[in-house]
Input
Amino acid sequence: MNRSITIIVPVFNEADIIEEAINQISEIASKWRYDFSIVCVNDGSSDTTQEVLERCAHKNSKLKIISLSRNFGHQIAFTAGLDAALGDAIIIIDADLQDPPEVMTTFIEKWNEGYEVVYGKRIIREGESVFKTMTASVFYRIIDSLSDTKIPHDVGDFRLMDRKVVNILMKMPERHRFIRGMVSCRIC
Output
């Protein structure tokens, strides 16, 4: 039986870039030996994102759209995508293309080696202000001091999770989710 990959793309006011993101993701995923689907979660966009998504879905049978009634935030959009994901592995990537979609192939290689969670870590934080870099550093120091569970620094939500991990994650009762923390482990 062939395994499958679901790629979740949360979007909020991404009308200018979402079509390019879907095209790049589809082109890369079409080279895999796995079946794939793309789930775009429109998190209450107020621009023409929904119309662009619908146009893309007419051209791309691999694309599914979930439209939230209003802006609920990034983590809820992820959760809505996870609820709809059918793949044996799930990849989360933002629509803004700040994370290079070609890295998804490396994630899958690691998954094939047996890793259940594979995440991308930023080595260079291009385009981020000193303030943003400093506040991120302070945030992770505070989280580290308050928790026994280590959250990897400079890691966003760009990651692959095996179906087993997603099933456990979706059973967690948290309403105010912080997926980076929920997926982290003591040995990261």
